[in-house]
Amino acid sequence: MTGRTGIIGAGHLAGYLLEGFHKRNPGGQVLVSDRNPGRAANLADQWGARTVAGNQALVSASDLVILAVRPQDALPACRALAFRAGQIVASAVAGLALAELEPAVAPARAVRVMPISSAALNGSPTLVFPGHPAVVEGFSPLGRVHVLPDEAGFTAASVIAAFYGWMYALADETIAWSVERGVPPEVARPLVMETIRSTADMALANPGEPVRDLLDRLATPGGITEYGLGILRRNHGLGAWSTALDAVLERISAR
Fold first, then answer.
1. Fewest CB atoms within 10 Å of the CB: 70, 75, 81, 181?
2. For the chain, which residues make up each domain, given as ranges?
3. Digit-coded pLDDT (tens) for 98-138
4. Alpha-carbon distance 194 to 190, whole Å?
């Protein structure tokens, strides 16, 4: 990464980011600060980061500041700090619009980002708006960076972070179902997770082909895929996903 990166916050997301940064650049030292010095120190020890005495010290020493705190804490924390021109504040706070963030971090430049927990494995698709070379470079060690053309698109794409979490629920349900019907647990878990990974791998390996076409080739007439899909559709199993996506979008847009 170019310049010094600091993370305000020491929760789960900060831990995932620090782990990913450390794996790509073990010798680099990301700064971390939090209201809980013990938690920040634990993360620093685990992932080779460096703690600083308070958020202002972190801001003063950083070129890229990543904001990874709870939504209700974000603006009060920023308003208490003195930022400088040429600095970038990348907010990973869901629902915090640029119009709210910009005055709180002026004269620094405000950018919205949305990484997910797989940043720890350097496999996070990270959303960015507006695009900035330093932000793209800063987050690229964590996985592929997707720059959105406008804030409305960024907000809508942010909902996919919730979808990411729901995939664990779907996997858990399917694993439990398998075990209840006699599949050994040591087989059920990797079988389900490898199947989910294979779905993504096939779609990513064929970027020019609509995902629906990949499905249609599997859902042959009279086959088990088609049969099960019919039951899901009749019971609004797929439509419920869109309903949930709409509900999350409405919630984060209402801030």
1. 181
2. 5-158, 160-253
3. 999 999 999 999 999 999 999 999 999 999 999 999 999 99
4. 6
